[in-house]
Known about the structure:
The chain is an alpha/beta fold. The chain has helices at 6-16, 111-120, 134-143, 164-171, 176-179, 188-191, 195-201, 226-231, 240-249, 268-274, 296-310, 323-331, 345-351, 390-403, 410-417, 464-477, 492-514, 521-548; strands spanning 92-99, 123-130, 152-155, 211-214, 220-225, 281-283, 289-291, 337-341, 358-360, 373-374, 379-385, 424-426, 432-434, 481-482. A five-stranded mixed beta sheet has the order 2-1-3-11-4. The chain has a three-stranded antiparallel beta sheet with strand order 8-5-9. Helix 1 (6-16) packs antiparallel against helix 13 (345-351), helix 10 crosses helix 11 and helix 17 (492-514) runs antiparallel to helix 18.
Amino acid sequence: MPSMSRRTLLRSMAAGGAAISTPxxxxxxxxxxxxxxxxxxxxxxxxxxxxxxATGPKPDLAPTGAGVQAGFTSYPADLVKSVxxxxxxxxxxxxxxxxFGTPPKPASANRFWAAVEKALxxxxxxxxxxxxxxxxxxxxVMAADPxxxxxxxxxxxxxxxxxxxxFVQRRAEDLTPYLSGDTVADYPNLANIPTHAWRDMGRIxxxxxxxxxxRPLPGSTLWLNQDTFTDAGMKEGWTSxxxxxxxxxxxxxxxxxxxxxxxxxxxxxxxxxxHNAPQEWAVSKDGVFLPGWADERFKAxxxxxxxxxxxxxYLPDATSISQIDLVTLYYNGTVxxxxxxxxxxxxxxxxxxxxxxxxxxxxxxxxxxxxGIVAARRSFGYTVLKKAKKERIELLLRLLxxxxxxxxxxxxxxxxxxxxxxxxTRGADGSPQPTKLGEVENNTNLPLKYLAEGPQVxxxxxxxxAVRALHAWQQKVVPYAVRNASYGLQSATKNAQGTTLKAxxxxxxxxxxxxxxxxxxxxxxxKKWRSRGGDRMAEELAKDHAANT
Length: 549
């Protein structure tokens, strides 16, 4: 199979979302003197924005209230117009986001950039920060003079930035007066963002400070080379024992059934969810927060993974290879599976078309109980605005409203594909197909989608069967999604120490599965985690949860 370009691989990672965890490099951050009370406990809570679905093309496959996405087996023939007028006033707007692409061509030579500026009616000064540099850059931004902040800042959920909530509360505009309840109606595309995204973004001190980037319910997913696993005996309704046997049969020579990358903990998210272990936090009926790490099912998932490694089913370089390189090995058949975000389906289907068939794995059962899947945080980060006068905030919200246009709209097509005839042509099904210029000038390298975006839908250009397969998979697994109960909640201890404490856990998981540590070390690690701040987090999350229910 041809080798993949770095641009394609980075685009795949961006589409997949936060599929692996990376320990943060920072332990402190200055946002000014004194401490802020970011908890929602004891505060009057701002109502969530009133959800009003946008009008547009009807999906071929219906969504469900439980979390199955709308599916489009073909591109809408008639695109709607979701914004009635140019939102900008000719001024310059400074923005900053994370990026998973390569640096874009400068604005003066970038026709995609120019087309978006024209549509928005502003000049855009864009600070684009690679994922690798994001934490360091944000530390600098968070410690800077407030006047030096960009107008619009994307806060990416892939990392826990120390004292992030305190920074937002002090430096960002309180958007409650503009977006809470029915006031969001002034921005129809923002009103089209489902409530689940706002909830998982959460409030800070009872107030709304950001706009979430909505994401589907399925999170970290085990992506298979379907033929490899089928040939090895995979079947629906498999057990954990079946999975282990199939993985062993699918391994041989220089090919391995199970791929993993640095920071993915040997795909621990997938396996712990299959064991129905809480994903970091669970909450009891009486509101007590229970750490997933202390659950015996989580420990059992580590033991199961250790057995898979001892059987030789994992890629030997699983603790040292990057996610980018792992994608290459998955595409060329060296590994038969890999953990990635569910959103990675689009590049996986498109880049392997005619060479292999990717498939999202159905979870195996454990001890007779159906296995779970990882429920993602429904907000892939959020966007905040620098404090400013009312007129300026309203301008910035109009710009974000344009960028949040729904699938099937003219605005969505422009922001995601550029100008027809320049950046894309039409495929047989009418869907945009990037030109050579569109492969360079696009929404990956100029990542406007991380400022604001409409609700995600299932769509693979020219591959209706892939959309049907993904929709059917979601119908089967969504009822078994295991959610992290802490999403959208505030904890001062987590804000200050969460990254360091999580690294303690992750190092132990990797060490045990890799064979460097005995399984008996797990209980000791959990005790350390609890005594160093885990139990305080549980108390703080419980208080915040009580305030939000």
